[in-house]
Amino acid sequence: MRLPSITSALIGLCLLMISCGEKETKSRKETRIDEDNHFADTGVEMELDSLKNELADGNSDFSKSFGQDEIAWQKWNPSLLEKAKLTQSPIFALVGSTVGGTSRSVGKELTETPNLRKLLTERYVCTVIDTHIYPEIELLCYQLAREMKRATTFPFFIWLTHEGIPLNWMPIGAQSGRELEMTLEHATSMIEDSWVNYSKDTIIHSRIENERRQERFESAPHQVETTPAREETFRSSTRHLSSLYRFGDQDLDYIGGLTPTNSLELLALGSNSHLLTDEVRKRCHNAASEVANALIKEALKDHLNGSYFFARRTTDWSLPAFSKTIASQAEIAHMLIRLGTIFNNDLFLEEGLSVLSITEEAWLQQSLSSISPTESSTESPDDPGKYLWDLKSLEKTLTEEEVTLALSAFSMTPKGNIPAAADPLEEFYTLNTLRQSRSLSELANQIGQSSTQLSEKLEIIKKKLLTHREKNTSYERESTLTVADLALVLKAQLARAGHLKERHHLKPAIILAERISQEFYHPQKGLTRFPHSKNPIPARCQDYANTANAFFLLNQATLEVKWLTLALKTLDEAITTLISENGLLSEISDDERIIPLRQNNRSMIFGESSLGVLDLSLNRAWAITGDEKYRVILDAHTESLTPLVKRSTVNHTDYLTSCALGTHPLVAVMKGDPAQANGYELLATLNSQKHLPYLTIRTAKPSDTQLGHSDSALETSITLLRNGKVLGRATQPQDLEKILARIITGK
Prior knowledge:
Elements: H1 2-36, H2 38-41, H3 61-64, H4 79-87, E1 91-96, H5 102-112, H6 114-121, E2 125-130, H7 135-147, E3 156-160, E4 166-171, H8 177-197, H9 199-218, H10 230-243, H11 261-271, H12 278-297, E5 311-312, E6 320-321, E7 324-325, H13 326-343, H14 346-364, E8 370-373, H15 391-397, H16 400-409, H17 440-447, H18 451-472, E9 475-478, H19 483-500, H20 507-519, E10 521-522, E11 526-527, H21 541-558, H22 561-578, H23 610-625, H24 628-647, H25 653-659, E12 666-671, H26 677-686, E13 695-699, E14 717-722, E15 725-730, H27 733-745
Parallel strand pairs: 1-2, 12-13
Antiparallel strand pairs: 1-3, 3-4, 5-6, 7-8, 8-9, 10-11, 12-14, 14-15
């Protein structure tokens, strides 16, 4: 009789467990349904009209410019999600920046047009996202635009759920008037219908799509069968890049009109490398030289003040977008100094040094990050007499003789000089960009004057035109400099010091490095994107990458331990803060993400690749310290980036420049005192742009037994090592030049 009792008890226990399990499952399911239907059954806990504009004390000049709008713009932070939950409203985000000028003009139209303002304020929690502060959102906009098969233009509108997940998005650009109104009305109608009537499905679908989006971000591209050595990647990719250029072609990057400084630097490195044949090296030299020459002569250069515009509208240089940034000035200066050094080209060197001087005086000293002409329905930077010129605006500004000279000097014509390819809709018909395609001596010979006389007259003309432009143009300026901005200037300063080879030229770089170390390193929070005393926003991956690279370069120029310590500290902090499961560094840390997506910037989107720049620092850290943690991440970069490089060379030239250092780095070991005259000359030789991109410099260690013993204990020497083997040793700069030429160029 016991068996039936036990059986009955077990059956009863099973039924009880099933019943409890069903209740627990039902409870979890009901909880999830309640969560998904949050907006269907709960009451509104906060009214939208109770929100106030928070941007009067925004983090940048751009965000502050929205501070007096009637729209209740909220700050971009996690409190947005709570406000969306309490008001049961989606989030509307205007993503934009000062660069380009259109973002603020669209923002003004939204707040100054009653029906647009009403449409936003009655339906959404509204926020402004400044890409200058949050560059990871700029990268996200690029990815979202790709999903729509659309180009990325700013401002960019994103609608988000209370969980920070994108619901809908739209690149807006220069839309205005009825076009802008229809875009917002159509998007609002779609979102309102799904939000009110299908909240559960809408939220679940947004989560699923976001998970798929994350998988696309994380998934590795098609893997190559065998991962080639870095030397081979550098060789084959640089050869491919050189083949993209044909004489007369000024387009090398195909990435939306940004100046291809990285591509030109990579070509210059290829022209100097023994890994390439003489024929390919010549192609590299010609391509980089011709494009750089065009850049200097054409309209991408602002010929009135010597600076350069941020981007171009077309595939050549004939019609720029008239915005400028300090970062682009520094990158152009560095590129020209590198090309001038490798090619022994005085024009490039002179131009690079000039741009750097302008960057220091007009940008760095005045704390100016970007400048853009404002754009509105009544005012445009393309109006005659601002950046584009017609004969009437010239005649109002110059004398008759000066008009004749200006037309010839700047290659202008009464009917306009913008080619049809750059202006297919004839929007700029009869207008002229300023370009100096003819040399000063050529022009002087034509008009029968000396070059000195002509130069003086041209300076007067330039001043008059510049005064006219400044008087008739209003600007949007950004004064908040990022640590990446300063790091790029520091990098250019070090290139200048490497060219001029005199100690005092290092002083500006050291002063700037001290500023970075004092203003951008928070005692507890580490590296910040802006000065921590004013705006302690954590650094992004691009900040870590550029800052670490700049400090490594300063250490290479001085061999001072404190700069190496700071470089390694920055790199280690980046790894600790940003390392993700795939072994790559993400743009921001997980606790900083409002939109639940992890991104790795692997290609040159909006000017640089965070991982590509970071690779340079990892390479040098590995060569100097031998610490395996750097090699592990380098291997992850190789695995991730090599297949992408095979698909598109021009999008990964940051990484390819790092590949020039090789799989087994060429290390120059200094034994002796670099402060001595001979030691400084040896160090300066290594830091020339002809040599530094291919090697890493460090001081001798007790374990360096292969260095041998100098004849004199005071003698300073350089020993070149690769993979533990001695490739050469020199105690005199001229001997070192010969050894480096043999190793690097093969000649």
